[in-house]
Amino acid sequence: MAKKFKFLYVRVYCQVNDETCSGESCAVKNNGIEDYKQEQDMEIEALEAILMDDFKEIHSSESGLNTSNRCFQITLCPQDDELDESTNPPVRLALIFSHTEKYPDEPPLLSVKSLKGIPTADLKVLKEKLEQEAAENLGMAMVYTLVTSAKEWLSERFSEDAGVEDAEENEAAKDEIIVPHGEPVTVDSFLAWRERFEAELALERAKLMPDSALTAPKEKKLSGRQWFESGRASSKGSAPIAEGSDEEEEDIDFDDDDFEDLPEIPIDFLNFAKQAEVFDWMVDIRRRIHENPELGYEEFETSKLIREELDKMGIPYRYPVAVTGVLGYIGSGKPPFVAIRADMDALSLQEMVEWDHKSKNPGKMHACGHDAHTAMLLGAARILQEHRNLVKGTIVLVFQPAEEGGGGAKKMIEAGALENVEAIFGIHSSSFLPVGEVASRSGPLLAGSDFFEAVISGKGGHAAIPQHSVDPILSASNVIVSLQHLVSREADPLDSQVLTVAKFQGGGAFNVIPDSVTIGGTFRAFSRESLVKLKQRIEEVIVGQAAVQRCNATVTFESKDRPFFPPTVNDGGLHKLFQRVAGDMLGTAGVNYMQPLMGSEDFSFYQEIIPGYFFFLGMKDETLEQPVMPHSPYFRIDEGGLPFGAALHASLVVRNTETHEPGGGAEAKDKGVVPSLRPITNFPGLVARYSKRYLELDSLEEGNSWEYLRINGSIPSSGVVISYHKLKKLSFLNCPSWEKWEDTTPEEEGSATMSIMPCLRVLSINRCMLTELPYRLLRKASSLQHLMVTCSFHLSECYEDRRVLAGDHCPALHM
User: Fold this and answer.
1) What pLDDT shows up at residue 11?
2) CA–CA dist 576, 599 (Å, integer)
3) Which residues have a Cβ under 8 Å from the Cβ of 67 and sit 6 or more positions away?
4) Is 694 strand, coil or helix?
5) Which intervals carry biased composition (Acidic residues) (predicted)?
6) Which residue of 13, 37, 504, 741 is most buried, as measured by CB atoms within 10 A?
7) Considering only CA atoms, which of 230, 425, 268 is closest in space to residue 341?
């Protein structure tokens, strides 16, 4: 066989180079060429002529071979006469090789990789077989001999699998007991049928369940894209189900043909990250950052280290972004754009853990794992740069400052961090989860939080004659007790909320009633609607209870030191992706479903604009008797979790770009928006530039000059984007001119009118023009549970797709 193909190989080479081949006397076949390099080049030319599209050159970093020489990949399928060109083969293999210096007098470097349906154990057997054959077939045409041998092996292996499946089906048919038609069903016959059914079901499940997570054959299901398109076509006009509704969430099925090589990506990335050199590099970065902790917007040395490592990897970046932030870019620079984020800042704590890499900055410590987050994102950058052939689009690396109360995410957005980005992922280390496990959920994951401070003023005096004073301490005490009723008696028990008064300052002597008392605290909930309602009632209760005690009260909410964080709400479509990627890497046992937590994260600011996904990564230090909570001076993590975080980061964005469809896949998020509104990401650049949130309105009916658009819940402080989707004409009557238009809207009972004068920007996609027009945005309902947006304008034409961007910074919309 080898001699036959060697002669064919020589004849093809001679034809390619316009030489004559005289069979046994051929100069090429008889090694008439002495130079190794020349022989290798000849072989490459011949293989290109024979294999054509199945032969290609790849970068050495993609080959898995320890060489800097040229590397090549040959795609192989089973050698089967029954398979024509249109047949989708059940298995597919990549044979990777690189010539050594003395090839063909010594074997080439070899590697094999499954492109579809070949278990890892079989790949190891095949590689050993090919290496042995290479050693036995030294000389020209050695690679082609290996190609033929690999094809034959695939054919035999495929035939064996088919034979096993046929045998199982025949055996099942023999054992099947057919009940004659019309025979009465008895208890015994039913129990016998059930036993056979359960046995067959167990057999089918055994076929689907792998012995190892690495070799798992996947079910044949609908792809995410097919599911989205079919769902959109079959339920046109139906509203998506909001998160948190009573209806159960349906699983999205996937088709292996669309993801045939994707399950191997997480494992390959994890193995890469676990290499000793890569792992030690990540550990060193984490420890260097840990030794030099820096507070929010002071991360200059941390940012410098990040930029140095990006320079070494050849990754371009933007700096500075939001003072110390860095944005790195990997890929083509074209859509889709997907981001991964890590925070860099430390906490104002004195580290109490004694080890070689203890904080060298007094009063500062990485006690929340941000040093590990940064190291893992750099690890993901290295993985992606080494495997950039797998990146379909552009990956944005977001190194963010000031997560710990500084609103760093918000400033990164304002600086354009989400320009063109359509999805974002984030990791948080967990000192309670074991290494190799993750935890997250779809929908609300972390609570939104806000802070309040109230100054209650009375009249000071001597403690012996309180009748001549107005005691603010007594008034503040009644306020605190009354505030606790807001959650216990006014909130829905199924809508988790927390209100805590954690600050009480007043008085300086034992016998003096002070003039004023200051109290403060925080309140948290899993929806903006609940936060808005709590905020309103907190102010009402404090002012009202103070008045009962003859005191005055002023209440302030978020400030520079106490920023508002929205709820962290995970996108449903990205949750499906996360489950699949994490399951492929860690197995289903390593992917945990968690209950929502009352903690807050400024990652939620990104999710206000685009679909995002946040999850917890196991980094529990098993040497400790009890795990240590974050924000503790004794906080410790296991650095063994670093490769998992880096590989998950990289796998999620690669798989997201592989299965990407613009505008599809992201499910409606429960941010207090009516179901007819759904998030869209068609113009993330525009939305990032103005710090807006996108909402798509499926339809808008024509009406009189006062058309109300009701939006449940509050709106981000910087406004809202509403899309009028594919409307040919849009006109509101009774509006002769902008100059004459005035606020003549009839008042609704119990509502408060607030006049605001931002701008209306109309973006015409067809003509790529941005036009500013004046307009009025009126009315905020007194209940704060919804807003009534009133607008009146006339557009004679509306192009194929037109989006209306409503509102710059509007104080009345500031929730």
Assistant:
1) 42
2) 24
3) 60, 98, 109
4) strand
5) 244-257
6) 13
7) 425
Distance CA 399, CA 381 (A): 11
Confidence check: pLDDT of 707 > 60: no
More confident residue, 640 or 92: 640
Report domain extents, the chain. Answer: 2-159, 276-446+567-658, 448-556, 677-813
The CB density around residue 435, as the number of other CB atoms within 10 Å, is 19
- Residue in this structure with the two tokens 């807050």, named with its chain if needed: 600
Burial code (b: 16+ CB inside 10 Å, e: under 16) for 593-615 equals: eeebbeebbbbbbbbbbbbbbbb
What size, in residues, is the chain? 815
d(CA 573, CA 208): 24
Neighbours of 531 (CB within 10 A): 27
Q: Express each pLDDT in 487-529 by its tens digit.
A: 999 999 989 999 999 999 999 999 999 999 999 999 999 998 8
C-alpha–C-alpha distance, residues 748 and 54, integer Å: 71
Dist CA 531 CA 510 (whole Å): 38
Return the DSSP state at 549.
T
**Residues contacting residue 231 through CB under 8 Å, at least 6 positions apart:** none
Q: How far is 380 from 382, CA to CA, in rounded Å?
A: 5
Tokens of residue 442, six digits: 């779809």
pLDDT at res. 308: 97
Q: Cis bond leading into 320, ω under 30°?
A: yes
Nearest one of 522, 542, 525 to 454, comparing CA atoms: 542
Report how far Cα 79 is from the mean position of its chain's Cα atoms.
Answer: 41
Check residue 723 and give its pLDDT: 30
Residue 302 near residue 377 (C-beta atoms within 8 A): no
**Burial state string for 150-181 with b = 16 or more CB within 10 A and e = fewer than 16:** bbebbbebbeeeeeeeeeeeeeeeeeeeeeee
Q: Give the span between the Cα atoms of 184 and 188, in whole angstroms.
A: 11
What distance lies between CA 254 and its chain's CA centroid?
18
- How far, in Å, are 51, 395, 696, 728 from residue 700 at the CA level? 57, 36, 11, 11
Q: What is the CA radius of gyration of the chain?
A: 33
Structure token pair of residue 131:
């290496």
Q: What is the H or E stretch that residue 354 is in?
A: none
CA distance 710 to 116: 51
Peptide linkage before 335 cis (omega within 30 of 0) = no
CB 366 within 8 A of CB 353: no
DSSP H or E run through 704: none
Neighbours of 310 (CB within 10 A): 23
Q: pLDDT of 411-452, one tens digit each?
A: 999 999 999 999 999 999 999 999 999 999 999 999 999 999
Write out the two tokens for 586: 């860690």
Cβ–Cβ < 8 Å for 386, 272: yes
**Residue closest to 481 by CA, chosen among 463, 504, 506:** 504
Strand-pair category, 568-570 with 443-446: antiparallel
Structure-token pair, residue 537: 């009632």
Tokens 């109230």: give the residue: 454
Residues 582, 438 contacting (CB under 8 angstroms): yes
Sort strands 591-593 and 438-440 into parallel, antiparallel or unpaired.
Answer: parallel
Cβ atoms of residues 346 and 277 within 8 Å = no
Contacts of 197 (CB under 8 A, 6+ apart): none
Q: Does domain 276-446+567-658 have CATH number 3.40.630.10?
A: yes
Handedness of CA 523, 527, 531, 534 (dihedral sign): negative
The beta strand positions in 431-539, using DSSP E, are 438-440, 443-446, 448-457, 461-462, 497-505, 512-513, 516-525
Query: What pLDDT was estimated at residue 779?
Result: 28
Contacts 24+ apart (CB under 8 A), 412-415: 412/321, 412/322, 412/325, 413/605, 413/606, 413/609, 413/688, 413/691, 414/322, 414/691, 415/321, 415/322, 415/325
The strand pairing partners of 352, in sequence order, are none
CATH architecture of 448-556: 2-Layer Sandwich (3.30)
